[in-house]
Amino acid sequence: MATIEIHTLRAVEALRHAGRAAAATLATVAARLAPGVRADQIDQWVREDTARRGGRPSQLNYHGFPASVCVSRNHVVCHGIPTAKEVLADGDIVNVDVTTELGGYHGDTSATFIVGRSSPEARHVVDVARRCRDAGIAQVRDGARLGDIGAAIEELARKEGCSVVREYGGHGIGRVMHAAPHVSHVGRRGTGPRLRAGMVFTIEPMVNLGGAAVRLLDDGWTVVTEDGSLSAQFEHTVVVTRNGCEILTPEPEVAMAVAL
């Protein structure tokens, strides 16, 4: 297993700045979402706002990814490529995943937003996904096990009649966007590496209204639910502390309002 980095106080401060920048960009985009907005417009807004904050979109050209942000609508689980053909419609749900490199460090956050009026099913899966993320975060503390996070997420999703995607998970983050550890959103309590103060990683469960199975489209990036059901995701970057954890990508009030 790859070594999990323990970040210095100076590095955590740099990660805090990057995380807050990413969260602010996400909130700026959230305030502009509405029926008729094209996904490529969201990409442009992310590029402009990230640059205005002195950062760089971490996702742009990452392993060939052609955009600065992932925009995943309805049954798209993750890694949706924002194009002009993807147009938000009334009642859609859409995940916007922003990662900002600032000062050599990365901040990663995402949220799922309801566009216009919504169905009870859409509200349910969005609400469950947010609560699953928060349930995972609540497990994070010095001395806990990595498996505690996935177990808490899976337990809540199952209780609410939803499923959790297994193929994709959270990740360590620092001077590189993806590092050890892999953070599974399913698991067993008391298993996996011990968490230590100074570890930094993302928790970003992908929760489906239907089954957990997913498939990758021919573009090599876009992941969709196998059964076509709605999928929602929320993500924070956190640092483990001696007494729990700190969220490095705090949600500005505008993002909270639009997401619900």
From TrEMBL:
InterPro entries: Creatinase/aminopeptidase-like, Pept_M24, Pept_M24_MAP, Pept_M24A_MAP1
Alphabetized PROSITE patterns for the sequence: MAP_1
Annotated residues for binding of a divalent metal cation 1: D97, D108, E235
Catalytic activity: Release of N-terminal amino acids, preferentially methionine, from peptides and arylamides
EC primary class: hydrolase
Cofactor needs: Co(2+); Zn(2+); Mn(2+); Fe(2+)
Pfam families to which the protein is assigned, alphabetical: Peptidase_M24
Keyword terms: Aminopeptidase, Hydrolase, Metal-binding, Protease
Record-annotated membrane-spanning stretches: none
Annotated EC: 3.4.11.18
GO molecular-function term, one example from the UniProt record: metal ion binding
Gene3D superfamilies recorded: Creatinase/methionine aminopeptidase superfamily
KW DNA repair (keyword) present: no
Gene Ontology terms describing biological process: proteolysis
Superkingdom field: Bacteria
Protein residues bound to a divalent metal cation 2: D108, H171, E204, E235
Binding site for substrate: H79, H178
Record text on cofactor binding: Binds 2 divalent metal cations per subunit. Has a high-affinity and a low affinity metal-binding site. The true nature of the physiological cofactor is under debate. The enzyme is active with cobalt, zinc, manganese or divalent iron ions. Most likely, methionine aminopeptidases function as mononuclear Fe(2+)-metalloproteases under physiological conditions, and the catalytically relevant metal-binding site has been assigned to the histidine-containing high-affinity site.
Residue span, Peptidase M24 domain: 13-241
Biological role stated in the UniProt entry: Removes the N-terminal methionine from nascent proteins. The N-terminal methionine is often cleaved when the second residue in the primary sequence is small and uncharged (Met-Ala-, Cys, Gly, Pro, Ser, Thr, or Val). Requires deformylation of the N(alpha)-formylated initiator methionine before it can be hydrolyzed.
Family of this protein: Belongs to the peptidase M24A family. Methionine aminopeptidase type 1 subfamily.
NCBIfam families attached to this UniProt entry: met_pdase_I
Complex and partners: Monomer.
Protein's recorded name: Methionine aminopeptidase
Species in which this protein is naturally found: Polyangium spumosum
Taxon lineage: Bacteria, Pseudomonadati, Myxococcota, Polyangia, Polyangiales
Gene from which this protein is expressed: map
